[in-house]
Amino acid sequence: MKKILLGNEAIVRGALEAGVNFVSTYPGTPASEIGNTFYKIAKEAGVYPHTKRGQGAKIDEVSPRSGVGVYFEFSTNEKVALEAGIGASFSGLKTLVAMKHFGLNVASDSLMPFCYTGSKGPTVIVVADDPNCWSSAQSEQNSRAYSYLAHIPTLEPSDPQECKDFIKLAFEISEKFNLPILIRLTTRVSHQRAPVKLGKLSGSHPDKARFVKEPQRFVTMPPRVLEMKKELFKKIEKIKEFSEKTFINKISLLTSDVNKQKTGIITSGVSYLYVMEALEELKIDLPVLKLGFFYPLSEKKIKDFIKNLKKVLTVEELEPYLEKEITALAKSVNPGLQIYGKALLPEVGELKPDHVVAALATVLKTHDRRVLAQRADLPKFPKRLPNLCPGCPYWLVFGAAKKAVDFKKVIFGGDIGCYMLAGLPPHNIQDYLSCMGSSIGIAHGIKKATAGQQKLIAFIGDSTFFHAGIPALINTVFNKSNPLIIVMDNQTMAMTGHQPHPGAPAKPDGIKIENIVKACGVKNLKVIDPIKQKELIKTIKEFLNKKQVSVIIARRPCIFVK
């Protein structure tokens, strides 16, 4: 049976076929659909804490041991999501943790020691990168760097079918070698839609979950931690041997014999699809080594592939990790090999088939008119900048802030969420933007650096406040600076698809942001519905001149939630 699935949906299907027990995530595009799909499944099955459908499990009944299905949660941030997953893994459960690329940065503190201790229950971590910054404006990150930094085995699927198949293989590898496995996606893999051949759903046995005490098994302290590192390296060597034989490293050649070819291509992930499209357009047939196993690399397979070639083109998005590895390997088996890569292909932004066509034209020294002809330019459409939805409560907050202060004299700090759009017309009130929770942390630094002489308003969303804003607020209170912080409480994670969060769960009675703010020692605090413009403007003016940190919670639901 086949079904058309997104890459992210295929990840979910593969995990279910593998018998996953425990799933945790924090929403972040392009990985959001993984959590959203598990959330729907858990809700329909009656195993999410708020649910009123299905078996209607109570919150204290919801665990993998309850026998009512896969446990799923939206955690408060990615580090917490991974730590919850590590706890489930240490208890023997088959575990999946999903996040976007910046989320892996947040979770990296926990990722590094987890690779040292290893997993007990098979564990897969899915990370989705965003080349070209389609949804993630802060930086164009290549998470493959973590493969080397953490020494975590890494697989790169290129399409939804491989998403499903690779996730099942990842669980098998994790179980065999007691290591977490990283699945690295990109936007074009996560959001690609294609027919996927479905397998049987696997039954799980969560009733066996138990944390068993084992001396120094999960404790990363010297001198044991150094022994753990040696053990990790030994596992990587064994996995390297395993990767030489796995089906996900394969050579594609349409007609001719690979040994008779003098030019080859090595690629991975979605770049493989661009390569095959370019070859089809050019109507040429070259051997293509597709590396589904990015780390550790199949060195023997690569050496066998390149030993008789005169030229090889490495095709990969962003930084040239494959190109550097292949250059090093070629020295021992084919020192005269001409290696082409980032000299012909962009290191910034997504790859396109056109890029590969042009690179092949150079490598093959062809003057085929189809290759060198200029592509027809797209019509010049007028630019349309993204904007807040009509009726969004943030219009009211930004409008009030601009009316309350001297726009040129007040610094405006941005954070991650829909309100990032404050930096674009018609608002134009965002003077810095970095990462989750940083609006408050940077505000404190500016205030201290300028001895409080400059007025500053920091905007932060409700979900972002729970994610990373609380420690920054505590730091600001304790170290005595006085920014005005406006918490934009629209009672949902709007930007990533309206998921629940601790302050706005799907069932009422979440954690009140004002209670946390009070507990942090903030004296100047007010909760205001931004529809009350006069009150909001007056409070902004008043709080901006306070000598201590001030917080306004601008609470009005997102129009889609309401």
What does this structure look like?
With 562 residues, the protein is of the alpha/beta class. The chain has three domains: 2-245, Thiamin diphosphate (ThDP)-binding fold, Pyr/PP domains (Rossmann fold, 3-Layer(aba) Sandwich), CATH 3.40.50; 249-372, 3-Layer(aba) Sandwich (Rossmann fold); 393-555, Rossmann fold (3-Layer(aba) Sandwich), CATH 3.40.50.970. The chain is 38% helix and 16% strand. The protein is built from 18 helices and 19 strands. The chain has helices at residues 7-18, 32-45, 78-90, 101-117, 145-150, 160-177, 187-190, 224-245, 271-282, 299-306, 321-333, 353-364, 369-372, 393-404, 438-449, 462-478, 513-519, 533-544; strands spanning 2-6, 22-25, 71-74, 95-100, 123-129, 154-155, 181-186, 193-197, 249-252, 263-267, 288-291, 293-295, 311-315, 338-340, 410-413, 455-461, 484-489, 524-528, 550-555. The strands form four sheets. It has a seven-stranded mixed β-sheet, sandwiched between helices. A five-stranded mixed β-sheet has the order 9-11-10-13-14, sandwiched between helices. Helix 15 links the parallel strand 15 (410-413) and strand 16 (455-461). Helix 3 packs parallel to helix 4 (101-117) and helix 15 packs parallel to helix 16 (462-478).
